[in-house]
């Protein structure tokens, strides 16, 4: 593994590589073109891009939407592992920490899938083994018969204590939402501790995490308001961002949407991008549209941060996020086409 | 006339004309060494960044090799300027 401490040259090398990769991601026009294509045509277009090795490799075993799903997941996992292999020193530590979120996503996908009685093969298609749990471990988890055994198989893993504490209740309630919150709280607390541990570049990493937490909390607030949730929302919010938990709870109690947006805007005076989007959200929008818009703002803000700090962890994390949304977009288009949704409807879910 | 005055002045300071000429040559040699050495260091500083980025870009896209090679050698001109100055100083 590359462990270099000889000045900023390795940072420049890695950041340039990822900037080149980012420039090769699919442009907006390509997505718009795909919206007017059939599923086989979309598969062919995907095959002409960086997903070719996976499509070729899996072409004999899968077809149609399954082929796209598995190829996209494999490609994303491979890409993330590849990035970990080329990042040096503290950049690798931060990247690895950030990618551990996939462990939470994979475990929750398996638990939810198992609870709903979905076949192991179907669950496997959407797993992204990019965190500490590799493909083999995830396969053995999928082979377990019950949720108890799945949780037990994670003994020794950092997720285990939180899972152990919450999964019984989650199974009884039939919802893993609370457990998911707790897992993400732990995840972000670990990231913040890592950023504040005095490693070189930690402050920049912390800025990135704060932005991530803020946007997540704002999305949660919009979601709670859409569901008219009026109880104390403090427990559902992630600490560590620029908003305190009390502040977020107070924001949730505001009655009108206009008042809520004004209060948010007053709090985030320095973020002009978010200010503009919040103004646009005053008019009626569905939850998914709001989330997509906020995600776009987050990506734009991340992009801006990566330009201000071109040789730091920012360009790496920005690429990780952009790549993730490329896969999400392609999956959304493929799934939407499979379900015969109109192009306009699919485009609402795209982060472009 | 001026040389005579200098010789007299130096003679009083305890130095011969030969010593002064050798000293001047030595100073020129130091200046020439600094011209090449410092520009060499400056070129190295400029090149390590460009070189790292160039290798990174080429690793992702081999088509840019010619362009990045050109960009990498541009700071070499600083050394050439230094060399020219050094040669002018010495000859």
Structural descriptors:
heterodimer; A: 352 residues; mainly alpha; 19 helices; 71% helix; B: 91 residues; 4 helices; 0% strand; rod-shaped
Short structural summary:
Chain A is mainly α and 352 residues long. Helices cover 71% and strands 0% of the residues of chain A. The longest helix of chain A has 26 residues, at 313-338.
Main β-sheet description of chain A: none
CA-based shape of chain A = globular
- Subunit arrangement of the protein: heterodimer
Provide the succession of SSEs of chain B: HHHH
- Helicity level of chain A: over 70%
Strand content of chain B: under 5%
The chain pair forming the largest interface, with residue counts per chain, is:
A-B, 13 and 11 residues
Q: Strand-residue fraction of chain A?
A: under 5%
Distance between the termini of chain B: 26 Å
Rounded mean pLDDT score of chain A: 88
**Strand elements of chain A, count:** 0
Low-confidence stretches of chain A: none
The gross shape of chain B turns out to be rod-shaped
What is the C-alpha radius of gyration of chain A, as a whole number of Å? 21 Å
Number of helices of chain B: 4
Q: Give the helix/strand class of chain B.
A: mainly alpha
N-to-C SSE string of chain A, H for helix and E for strand: HHHHHHHHHHHHHHHHHHH
* Averaged pLDDT of chain B: 88
Please estimate the helix content of chain B. over 70%
What would you call the structural class of chain A?
A: mainly alpha
End-to-end Cα distance of chain A, whole Å, is 35 Å
What features would you describe in this structure?
The complex is a heterodimer of chains A (352) and B (91). Chain A is mostly helical and 352 residues long. Helices cover 71% and strands 0% of the residues of chain A. Chain A contains 19 helices and no strands. Chain A has helices spanning 9-23, 28-34, 39-47, 52-58, 64-86, 89-99, 101-115, 120-125, 135-143, 147-153, 160-173, 177-195, 202-226, 245-253, 257-267, 272-280, 287-308, 313-338, 343-347. The two termini of chain A are 35 Å apart. The model of chain A has no long low-confidence stretch (mean pLDDT 88). Chain B is an all-alpha fold and 91 residues long. In chain B, helix 2 runs antiparallel to helix 4. The mean pLDDT of chain B is 88. Chain A binds chain B through residues 7-10, 12-17, 20-21, 24, and chain B through 48-49, 51-53, 55-57, 59-61.
């Amino acid at each position: 593994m590359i462990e270099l401490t000889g000045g900023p040259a390795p940072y420049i090398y890695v950041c340039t590589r990822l900037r080149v990769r980012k420039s090769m991601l699919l442009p907006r026009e390509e997505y718009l073109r795909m919206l007017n294509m059939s599923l086989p045509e979309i598969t062919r277009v995907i095959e002409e891009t960086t997903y070719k090795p996976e499509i070729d490799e899996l072409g004999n075993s899968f077809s149609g939407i399954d082929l796209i799903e598995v190829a996209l997941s494999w490609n994303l996992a491979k890409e993330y592992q590849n990035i970990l292999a080329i990042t040096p020193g503290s950049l690798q530590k931060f990247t690895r920490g950030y990618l551990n979120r996939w462990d939470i996503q994979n475990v929750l996908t398996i638990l939810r899938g198992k609870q709903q009685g979905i076949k192991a093969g179907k669950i496997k298609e959407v797993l992204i083994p990019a965190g500490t749990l590799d493909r083999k471990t995830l396969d053995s988890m999928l082979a377990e018969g019950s949720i108890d055994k799945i949780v037990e198989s994670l003994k020794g893993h950092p997720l285990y204590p939180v899972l152990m504490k919450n999964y019984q209740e989650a199974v009884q309630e039939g919802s893993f939402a609370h457990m998911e919150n707790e897992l993400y709280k732990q995840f972000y607390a670990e990231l913040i501790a890592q950023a504040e541990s005095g490693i070189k570049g930690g402050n920049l990493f912390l800025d990135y995490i704060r932005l991530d937490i803020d946007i997540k909390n704002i999305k949660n607030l919009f979601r709670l308001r859409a569901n008219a949730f009026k109880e104390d929302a403090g427990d559902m919010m992630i600490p560590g961002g620029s908003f305190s938990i009390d502040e977020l709870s107070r924001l949730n109690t505001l009655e009108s949407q206009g008042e809520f947006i004004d209060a948010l805007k007053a709090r985030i005076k320095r973020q002009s991008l978010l200010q503009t989007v919040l103004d646009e959200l005053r008019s009626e929008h569905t939850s998914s549209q709001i989330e997509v818009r906020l995600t776009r703002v987050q990506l734009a803000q991340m992009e801006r941060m990566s330009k201000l700090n071109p040789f730091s962890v920012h360009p790496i994390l920005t690429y990780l996020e952009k790549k993730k949304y490329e896969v999400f977009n392609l999956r959304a288009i493929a799934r939407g086409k499979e379900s015969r949704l109109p192009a306009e409807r699919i485009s609402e879910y795209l982060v472009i | 006339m001026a040389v005579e005055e200098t010789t007299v002045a130096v003679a009083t300071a305890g130095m011969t004309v030969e010593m002064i000429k050798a000293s001047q040559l030595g100073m020129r040699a130091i200046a020439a060494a600094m011209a090449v050495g410092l520009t060499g260091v400056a070129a190295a500083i400029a090149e390590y960044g460009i070189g790292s980025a160039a290798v990174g870009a080429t690793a992702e896209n081999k088509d840019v090799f010619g362009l990045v090679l050109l960009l990498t050698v541009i700071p070499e001109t600083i050394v050439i300027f230094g060399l020219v100055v050094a040669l002018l100083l010495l000859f």
